[in-house]
Inverse folding.
């Protein structure tokens, strides 16, 4: 069958041959055994309901074997034979261009060059899934190929519930992931309900089809690193940044360090992903010996090099070794997947990668004990460096949260509301007050033609828009504008594209709308093909996360999730092509609610109308909440937005004289 026919077929009418397990692919670790015998039976019945009864006798032992071996039923047999990648939108079958755009984005999330564990349908973060199994993928793609612009597909944690009648201005797809009753959002609840096949962890942009490879975080990391050096009044040149994690998103760290111009040392325990990131040129060198690494760092410092050095081993060994050698670390962080500490997100020191994976599945209690012991050592080593002047920040991966739960020395001696930890979140110190409060966040787009020349044209368009805007932009946002212009001018030369022809930059509502309008006009004029707009959930309005995105909210509301819920509801009736709302993402299941969107620009007047309505709301919803929290940058930004849009009327806070108390 052709590619189009395979998509339209959905779940095959005849069983395909079983597929061999491919050891050269980066696979998800085995999940711990958590189901009772009765629950295992239920998980198998849940999986078999996707298939006609005549196939059940053959599939049952196979699915049972997967559940025993891997802790999940992935349905490997049903992996498609075609290459998994984003194609030109014209290659997808269907009646709706919007639906075709979503198919393109789903396939990009599962591209082998993009996805962390492609055969397990996991895009990044160790457990950030697009679907729970391959039957869900096949059925979803079939529904999208049949959809008209008068229908909406509803996605329940990876399961396509079905196509429902709607209307042309409704979202074509509505996605929810992991939306649990609050009392069932503990880490083991994810293990259980995911194993049953009834819920999944969509991370942020994995289960919402908006991941664009490590580039998605490179820009934010670049801004963070640049501003971390600004905070310590030091030029990045010759400065040392130490961190960890090369899987998925955190592979962006060495690339961001190179763009910022510093020396980056990054630890990673997984040999396969370390090799991949080196081959992709996201990291310059790999080192396996600590003495050699120390010598290489001293040489780089002496020569003021811009270089990224991967250490194949545990990050704790680096912090401890650099302390022994009295090697000065300027800025430090961590980007391991500590939202998922007991299932492959963080590895214990002194135990091999292979033995750790075995212990994780066979002796989870001992594994947890070793991880917590490592977290205590990790924090202790960091404390020694910060006493010498290192600026350390939590990178929103739940490092400080899990370290505190392990009993590590990370709590502030004089805590205040929102400042419980010894070290700040990067959002508290950098991204919140400098970017989110002013409405700047990770706006992104994908060229659906798949043509590099289209991406170049969109880069040029975006740059021209920003250069025109900066002429009249207020002083308060000049630095943000300059950083963006520098970024977009260097985007092509930094080889940031992995998978789809995509780009990201930090823009405010005005910038997003003007760039989107310019794209839509260029599409209408035939200069470029259609463009998908989106953003990371890690943004001004999309995410309520008390230890990350909303960590600089100090009015006591940072544990509420009204903003994220309003964000996705508001986007859905203002013109988004698809919307998503997730439990979990970045900092972990039960720790955050986050929402996202996608929007197809096709050059039409309808697209022009929708983009203005939706993008304005998508940003200013969050600025309003930040303003009400008395964040001065947000008060400035929302007043400016009200001046620009007479229909916007936001409740402003009154400030109280502290002397009254």
């Amino acid at each position: 069958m052709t590619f189009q026919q395979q998509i339209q077929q959905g779940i095959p009418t005849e069983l395909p041959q079983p597929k061999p397990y491919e050891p050269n692919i980066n696979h998800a670790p085995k999940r711990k055994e958590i189901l009772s015998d009765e629950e295992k039976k239920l998980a198998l019945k849940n999986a078999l309901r996707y298939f006609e009864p005549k196939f059940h006798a053959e599939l049952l032992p196979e699915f049972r074997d997967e559940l025993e071996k891997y802790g999940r039923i992935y349905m490997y047999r049903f992996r498609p034979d075609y290459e998994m990648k984003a194609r030109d939108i014209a290659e997808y079958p269907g009646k709706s261009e919007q639906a075709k755009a979503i198919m393109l984005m789903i396939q990009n999330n599962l591209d082998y060059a993009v996805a962390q564990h492609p055969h397990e349908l996991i895009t990044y973060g160790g457990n950030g899934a697009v679907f729970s199994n391959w039957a869900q993928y096949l059925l979803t793609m079939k529904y999208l190929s049949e959809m008209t612009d008068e229908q909406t597909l509803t996605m329940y944690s990876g399961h396509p519930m079905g196509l429902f009648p709607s209307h042309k201005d409704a979202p074509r797809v509505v996605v929810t992931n992991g939306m649990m009753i609050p009392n069932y959002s503990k880490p083991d609840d994810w293990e259980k309900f995911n194993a049953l096949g009834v819920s999944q962890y969509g991370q942020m942009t994995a289960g919402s089809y908006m991941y664009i490879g490590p580039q998605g975080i490179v820009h934010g990391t670049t801004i963070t690193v640049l501003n971390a050096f600004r905070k310590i009044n030091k030029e990045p040149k010759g400065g040392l940044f130490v961190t960890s994690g090369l899987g998925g998103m955190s592979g962006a760290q060495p690339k961001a360090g190179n763009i910022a111009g510093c020396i980056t040392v990054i630890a990673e325990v997984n040999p396969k992903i370390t090799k991949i990131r080196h081959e992709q040129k996201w990291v310059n060198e790999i080192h396996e010996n600590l003495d050699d690494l120390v010598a290489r760092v001293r040489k780089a410092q002496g020569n003021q090099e811009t270089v990224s050095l991967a250490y194949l081993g545990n990050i704790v060994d680096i912090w401890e070794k650099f302390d022994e050698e009295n090697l000065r670390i300027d800025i430090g962080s961590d980007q391991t997947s500590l939202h998922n500490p007991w299932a492959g997100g963080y590895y214990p020191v002194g135990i091999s990668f292979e033995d750790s994976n075995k212990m994780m599945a066979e002796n989870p209690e001992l594994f947890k004990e070793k991880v917590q012991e490592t977290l205590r050592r990790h924090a202790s080593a960091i404390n020694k460096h910060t006493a010498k002047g290192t600026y350390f920040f939590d990178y929103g991966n739940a490092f400080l949260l899990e370290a505190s739960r392990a009993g590590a020395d990370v709590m502030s001696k004089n805590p205040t509301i929102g400042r419980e930890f010894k070290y700040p979140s990067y959002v508290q110190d950098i991204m919140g007050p400098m970017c989110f409060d002013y409405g700047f966040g990770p706006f992104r787009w994908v060229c659906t033609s798949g043509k590099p020349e289209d991406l170049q044209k969109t880069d040029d368009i975006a740059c021209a828009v920003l250069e025109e805007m900066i002429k009249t932009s207020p002083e308060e946002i000049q630095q943000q504008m300059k950083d963006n212009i520098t970024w977009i001018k260097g985007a092509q030369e930094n080889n940031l594209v992995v998978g789809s022809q995509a780009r990201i930059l930090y823009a405010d509502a005005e910038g997003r709308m003007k760039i989107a309008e310019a794209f839509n006009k260029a599409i209408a004029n035939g200069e470029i093909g259609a463009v998908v707009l989106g953003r990371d959930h890690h943004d001004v309005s999309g995410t309520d996360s008390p230890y990350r995105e909303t960590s600089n909210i100090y009015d006591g509301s940072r544990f509420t999730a009204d903003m994220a819920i309003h964000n996705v509801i508001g986007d859905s009736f203002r013109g988004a092509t698809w919307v998503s709302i997730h439990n979990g993402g970045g900092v972990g299941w039960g720790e955050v609610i986050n929402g996202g969107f996608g929007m197809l620009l096709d050059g039409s007047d309808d697209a022009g109308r929708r983009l203005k309505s939706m993008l304005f709301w998508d940003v200013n919803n969050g600025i309003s909440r930040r303003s009400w929290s008395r964040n001065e940058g947000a008060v400035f930004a929302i007043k400016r937005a009200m001046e620009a849009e007479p229909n916007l009327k936001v409740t402003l806070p009154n400030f109280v004289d502290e002397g009254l108390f």
